[in-house]
Amino acid sequence: MNAQTENLLLEGAAGAIEARRDLPEGAPRGIAVIAHPHPLFGGTMDNKVVQTLARAFVQCGWGAVRFNFRGVGASAGVHDAGQGELDDLLAVVRQVAPQGPLALAGFSFGAFVTSHALAALWPQRELQHAVLVGTAASRFQVAPVPPEAHLRTLVVHGEQDDTVPLADVLDWARPQTLPVTVVPGGGHFFHGQLALLKNLVVRHLQSAV
Q1: Could you report the per-residue pLDDT of 68-86, keeping only the tens digit for each?
Q2: Do the strands 63-67 and 129-133 form a parallel or antiparallel pair, or are they unpaired?
Q3: In a domain, 46, yes or no
């Protein structure tokens, strides 16, 4: 992402996990772990939305760690429809943020996996922020956000997302009374609107409790 990007090789249940870490100037406020879109459709940690999320966290003083799910890039293993990928995400958290302030973020398939990581981690440790973008609610069983985490969670979706219809995300969010921030005219990949997406995340990080 920039000259300060650090390449990491972590360990997961399927073997090596390829990752990259970006740090802000000065001591980070915490670590954000960011999950990428569907591995079988070209999703990697270098996806533009994933990098946009990383930039937003770094701008707000957080360290940002992106990683490749199993079977992507230099990460060992094969695609596991979400369960193995959840194990990957939790393994990354254990190694890069074993304690201290933690945030989770994900895009599309990565938001689905992040929702389950949030549900798994919330009873064990407090998470400062969660950011779910283009949440793949039409394709996977996205976990509900713990009620106590609602004020710390930002859900962003494009109005004209033709990969995951906005209506499906609203159907997931409605029973939880979980707000969804809708980007007018936005598609799944937020083409031409990445700066707006970044600003929405920055505003959330600066204002969340």
Answers
A1: 999 999 999 999 999 999 9
A2: unpaired
A3: yes
Q: Tell me 175's DSSP state.
A: G
Nearest to 164 by CA among 95, 200, 110, 206: 110
Give the domain range for residue 26.
6-207
Instruction: Count CB atoms within 10 A of the CB of residue 14.
Output: 19
Q: How many CB atoms lie within 10 A of CB 13?
A: 14
Q: Cα(45)–Cα(182) distance, rounded to whole angstroms?
A: 24
**Residue 66: its H or E element:** strand 63-67
Please give the tally of structural domains in the chain: 1
Pick from 49, 46, 51, 53: nearest CA to 69: 46
Q: Does residue 20 fall inside a structural domain? A: yes
Residue 161 falls within a domain, yes or no?
yes
What's the Cα-to-Cα distance from 199 to each of 41, 46, 78, 142, rounded to whole Å?
27, 19, 35, 25
pLDDT in tens, 96-154: 999 999 999 999 999 999 999 999 999 999 899 999 999 999 989 999 999 999 999 99
| Distance separating alpha carbons of residues 193 and 198, to the nearest angstrom | 9
Q: Does residue 192 belong to any structural domain of this protein?
A: yes
Residues in the chain: 209
DSSP 68: P
Reported as type and span, the H/E element at residue 110 is: helix 109-121
Identity of the residue numbered 26: G
CATH number at residue 177: 3.40.50.1820
> Could you tell me what percent of the chain has a pLDDT over 90?
96
